[in-house]
Design brief:
The complex is a heterodimer of chains A (about 270) and B (about 350). Chain A is about 70% helix and about 0% strand. Chain A contains ten helices and no strands. The longest helix of chain A is centred in the middle third of the chain and has 34 residues. The N terminus of chain A is likely disordered. With about 350 residues, chain B is of the alpha/beta class. Chain B is built from ten helices and 14 strands. Chain B has a six-stranded mixed β-sheet, sandwiched between helices. In chain B, strands 2-1-4-5 form a four-stranded antiparallel β-sheet. In chain B, helix 6 links the parallel strand 7 and strand 8. Classes of the chains: A mainly alpha (about 270), B alpha/beta (about 350). At the A-B interface, helix 1, helix 3 and helix 4 of A face helix 2, helix 3, helix 6 and helix 7 of B.
Chain lengths: ~270, ~350
């Protein structure tokens, strides 16, 4: 670069401005909305595709699991159909979220966001909101496919259904987030694979609890999968299934633990 | 001193046995542009990460405005706009959206954020790309335009302290000029600016002060003219060595040329010689070229680059560097280009 290319003379400005820039940051609501816009824009064109694929997976689980049971009776069909949404929500939280977070950690997004004047919980809140937006349509699709395929009749308890679905989604997302921020990316991927396997095959979500050995049933009393599934089921077919207050407590405890670990990773200085 | 916007005292941070920052002290006043120079692995990015509370210092203090950045990093962040060395996360966004979002987060109203985007597009000649979307995996916008956007996002709202980590990487020469002018302007408007760069020659013309970091330590600091030191009395003889890299000047120099300083940088040798021996130096260099000991030479004024290279030397290849520690808080260090160790001219 030649000497002529920079015309600005070095040295301090001849006159110092009378007012200096002041420290500033947006309020909590503006920050949250801005972060949400930012994250949604980043997913951008992929968002509809992600939602469609999630919905297709939802349909796939309903139809596919049906093939495992040749002459499915109405009771089993109802159990399977009302468990499918929970399987979807858990796999989304435990697979897609860790992948997304690992990517953000590798490409610098995680650091960029953390270097801004943003109250850290809002970063997590914006991310969780986006995942809830991605997840919820699949619940509706799986229920509609179940009605079409097995002709089941539901008795919706909307308050229970909505709160249970949101709680399961936030829990799965928070736990997935916690895994991704606590472990190196490759290990996080491995752990999330194992968890999906566990959710699909070894969790009493799409089959009754009684089919598991006694000791394994006791283990599931303390894990989020069975309580979450029971809560969503109680919202979808309130005439047939009920959930307990203990289910709510266990799920909430997992949710809070996931949030706490994620927040700690967002706040912590290495 | 009320005008001091950044005061770092005795800052020390290690990664295992590598001391990335070793008792670093520096100061940025409101309105000043301070350049932070150093080789790859000198500890520059480690320092920056501590300013915004991504890394915790082992020892030392950081004061940003009225805030103690070690005890209350969140308060410090409200004073700082950082352009990190990695690209800003703008995939899926247009530069306009990126600048507006960054401005909003730093407290601009929607209208001011829009105005900032328009103004910066003009200031940095971003107009043709302002509404073009950045696509994943580097599509849509070139690396240089992304870097400029990242800079624009950092300066969207005026902040007391602006920290720029390698802002000129990937940017073409004409826009680099615009960027340096914009940096200078932020200083003139009252922000304190700390700019981390390899780009000694360009930084020299814009900064008020320079801090040279070498192996984690501050090895020199002060205004460029003072660091350059000998510019009035001395000249620089720049010799291009033969491909075999043999340096003929180490064998013998004629008695008529007194070499004050000898710096080897790759296949270049930079000699500082007294101005009144210029004729003898040229004669010597011409002879060396005729004898095919060197490929070519140039005689010119002493620049800051000579001082910088003399201070920092050329680190041997493969030397362990603090910034390239396997530290996930510092994913950008590995994007530094090893070919920049000889600094730009």
């Amino acid at each position: 670069m030649s000497e002529q290319t920079l015309t600005t003379p070095p040295g301090p400005a001849p006159t110092r401005p009378t007012t200096l820039p002041a420290p500033s940051a947006a309020g909590a609501l503006t920050t949250y909305v801005t972060l949400l816009r930012w994250t949604l824009s980043q997913i951008g064109a992929m968002l509809p595709l992600i939602i469609v694929v999630q919905a297709l997976l939802a349909a796939g689980i309903i139809v596919g699991f049906g093939f495992l049971i040749p002459d499915i009776d109405p009771g089993t069909a109802l159990f399977l159909s009302t468990g499918a949404p929970t399987v979807l929500l858990l796999t989304l939280g435990l697979v897609m979220v860790p992948q997304g977070v690992s990517r953000a950690r590798t490409d610098g997004t995680f650091h960029y966001m953390r270097s801004m004047p943003v109250w850290r919980p809002l970063l997590l809140a914006a991310d969780l909101t986006v995942w809830v937006i991605v997840a919820l349509p699949s619940v509706a699709v799986s229920v509609l496919v179940a009605i079409w395929r097995y002709d089941i009749s539901l008795s919706l308890d909307w308050p229970v259904l909505i709160s249970a679905t949101v709680l399961v989604t936030v829990t799965a997302t928070a736990v997935g987030y916690a895994i991704a921020v606590s472990l190196p990316p490759l290990l996080a991927q491995l752990v999330s694979q194992v968890l999906v396997f566990f959710v699909l095959l070894f969790s009493p979500i799409t089959f009754p609890l009684e089919q598991l050995p006694q000791w394994f049933q006791a283990v599931h009393d303390w894990l989020p999968a069975r309580p979450g599934a029971d809560l969503v089921r109680a919202g979808l077919a309130s005439d047939t299934f009920t959930a307990t207050g203990r289910d709510l407590l266990v799920l909430s405890a997992w949710c809070l633990a996931g949030l706490a670990i994620s927040l700690r990773a967002l706040v912590r200085r290495k | 001193m009320p005008d001091v916007i950044l005061e770092v005292v005795g800052l020390t941070r290690s990664f295992g046995s590598v001391v990335a920052n070793n008792e670093v002290s520096l100061q940025v006043r409101a309105g000043d542009v301070v350049g932070l120079l150093g080789h790859n692995g000198a500890g520059k990015t480690t320092l920056v990460s501590q300013l915004v509370g991504l890394l915790r210092p082992d020892a030392g203090t950081i004061r940003v405005g009225e805030a103690d950045a070690v005890a209350d990093p969140a308060a410090a962040r409200r004073h700082i706009a950082l352009q990190p060395q990695a690209q800003a996360p703008i995939d899926g966004l247009t530069p306009r959206q990126g600048i507006e979002l960054a401005g909003r987060i730093r407290g601009l109203s929607a209208r001011d954020a829009r105005a900032a985007a328009t103004g910066l597009a003009e200031e940095l000649d971003l107009g043709p790309w302002l509404d073009r979307r950045a696509l994943p995996d580097g599509g849509g916008l070139s690396g240089g335009i992304r870097r400029l956007t990242s800079f624009a996002m950092a300066v969207a709202a005026p902040m007391p302290l602006l920290v720029l980590d390698e802002p000129t990487n990937d940017i073409d020469a004409s826009r680099r000029r615009l960027l340096w002018e914009a940096v200078r302007r932020r200083g003139d408007e009252g922000s304190g600016v700390l700019v981390v760069t390899h780009n000694v020659a360009e930084a020299e013309r814009v900064v008020d002060d320079l801090v040279v970091l070498h192996h984690g330590r501050v090895v020199a600091s002060g205004p460029p003219a003072r660091l350059r030191g000998t510019q009035d009395r001395d000249l620089r003889l720049d010799l291009q060595l033969q491909p075999d890299g043999h340096d003929p000047t180490t064998d013998e120099a004629p008695a008529s040329v007194r070499v004050r300083r000898h710096v080897r940088a790759g296949r270049r040798v930079l000699l500082t010689v007294p101005t009144d021996q210029a004729a003898a130096a040229v004669t010597w260099a011409t002879t060396l070229r005729e004898q095919e000991h060197i490929d070519g030479f140039a005689l010119g004024p002493v620049t800051l680059e000579d001082t910088y290279l003399a201070l920092t030397g050329s680190p041997p290849a493969g030397e362990s560097s603090p910034d390239s520690q396997p530290d996930e808080s510092d994913p950008h260090a590995r994007t530094e280009r090893p070919d920049e160790e000889t600094a730009h001219v």
